[in-house]
Amino acid sequence: MIVGQLFLEFALLSFVAFGGATALLPEMHRVVVENHHWLDDTTFTHLYAIAQAAPGPNVLVVTLIGWEVAGPAGALATTLAMCLPMSVLIYLLIDRWESFAGKRWQRAVSLGVAPLAVGLIFSGATLIAQAAGLGWAGVGLVLATVAVSLRSKIHPLWLIAGGALLGLAGLV
Amino acid sequence: MENRQNPERPDLRALFFGFSSVGLSGFGGVLPFARRMLVEERRWMSAEEFNTQLGLCQFLPGPNVVNLAVLVGKRYQGVFGAIVAPVGLLAGPFAIVLLLALLYDRYGNLPQAQSMLRGIAAVGCGLLFAMAWRMGAALKDKVVFLPFAALTVAAIAGLRWPMPWVMLGGLALSGGVAYWRLGRK
Fold first, then answer.
1. Nearest CB neighbour to B126, from listed A19, A47, A141
2. What's the alpha-carbon Rg for chain B, to the nearest Å?
3. Smallest Cα–Cα separation from B86: which of B63, B62, B70, B64?
4. Is there a contact between A115 and B152 if contact means CB atoms under 8 Å apart?
5. In this structure, are residues A83 and B62 in contact, taking their beta carbons and an 8 Å threshold?
6. Separation CA B35–CA B46 (nearest Å)
7. What residues does A55 pair with on adjacent strands?
8. Torsion of CA B118, B119, B125, B128, to 10 degrees
């Protein structure tokens, strides 16, 4: 029962996932933590952290959420729900879509969607910051990460490894 | 343009393994690796084709790389390609993530694991802010469009309105403004 509900909720979300699965973090939190109480804040943040540290497309955070809520069937349900509807749609629409290339309304939509995606990612970041229950040191680490990431070309994996070490050392 | 491409059409096997290499090599987003594999290493598409197809995938909702895999798979092997390519992309990382989930279920309550994950979450959160900053800096006509980003944050993070409605309303407003401005030029 819960697997079917997971599938439906995430399939609905997949249609508004402008900016990919990362943009969905606030809404996934709302569905999974606030509405259904399937997970708590801490677990949600942990799953996000694990997904960050694992290889693969960002979408796999939904796999982890599905797993924690309903085991293997849940993992499969959320992953399929997130990928399948748009895949089918894009498969059916691609030929027609290419004939619209450059049309005024098409350019308007892609221009219009971009700032919304920025807002969604920013909201996701504030949400993780709140849910992680960070102290001053944690907030400092967040700010330091932003600064380093914007000013250097260092691979994010090194920053993640650094965060893991600082955490292990009990500094965050 | 044709002669720059690989004359050989990738078969299902090549699609599967090509995309699994992409899925397994990317940390924190695999798009750059997808580009390298498709355009530079295997030359299944030209740089321009990649940009157009990616533009479409980024424009549409859903996981961009998965949508891209569907398009590339369809182009070379029809419906089977459109299934095999995204499955190849996701299978390896899916297994790894489940392995990590098992470890988390078993050891997640240890204080060391908790504090390590808190450190990673803080960095991940910083990476998200940085990503939003970069995407915001790349917006065209910032004076006009950045306010829509701010409105989205207010509606989603502040007021906690449901995202489908925020996206529909936001797209109508900001897409409408974009449409109007495109007409003036």
1. A141
2. 20
3. B70
4. yes
5. yes
6. 10
7. B27
8. -140
* A64 CB-near residues (< 8 Å, 6+ apart): A47, A50, A51, A75, B97, B100, B101
For A112, the token pair is 């219009």
DSSP one-letter code for B40: I
Alpha carbon distance B175, A111 (integer Å): 7
Distance between CA atoms of residues A38 and A109, nearest Å: 35
Torsions phi, psi of A117, nearest 5? -65, -40
CB A142 within 8 A of CB B125: yes
Q: Mind listing the pLDDT tens digit for each residue in A43-90? A: 999 999 999 889 888 899 999 999 999 999 999 999 999 999 999 999
- Token pair listed for B165: 């409605």
Nearest to A16 by CA among B48, B73, B152: B152
* CB-based contact B70 A50, cutoff 8 Å: no
In contact, B171 and A116? CB cutoff 8 Å: yes
- Among the listed residues B156, B179, B26, B161, the one whose alpha carbon sits nearest the alpha carbon of residue B89: B26
What is the value of pTM for the model shown? 0.88
Q: Which of residues 88-147 of A touch B (CB under 8 A)?
A: 89-91, 94, 97-98, 101, 104-129, 132-134, 138, 141-146
In this prediction the ipTM stands at 0.90
Nearest to B157 among A26, A109, A117 (CB): A26
Could you give the 3-state DSSP secondary structure of residue A55?
Answer: strand
Rg of chain A in Å (alpha carbons): 18
Nearest to A53 by CA among A134, A152, A158, A147: A158
Alpha carbon separation from B84 to A57, B78, B91 (Å, rounded):
16, 10, 10
And the tokens for A43? 């677990």
Q: What is the mean pLDDT of residues A96-100?
A: 80
Residue tagged 């005024």 (tokens):
A104
Quote the CA–CA distance of A100 and B178 in Å, as a whole number: 17
3-state secondary structure of A21: helix
- Separation CA B185–CA A122 (nearest Å): 31
Inter-chain contact A87–B164, Cβ cutoff 8 Å?
A: no
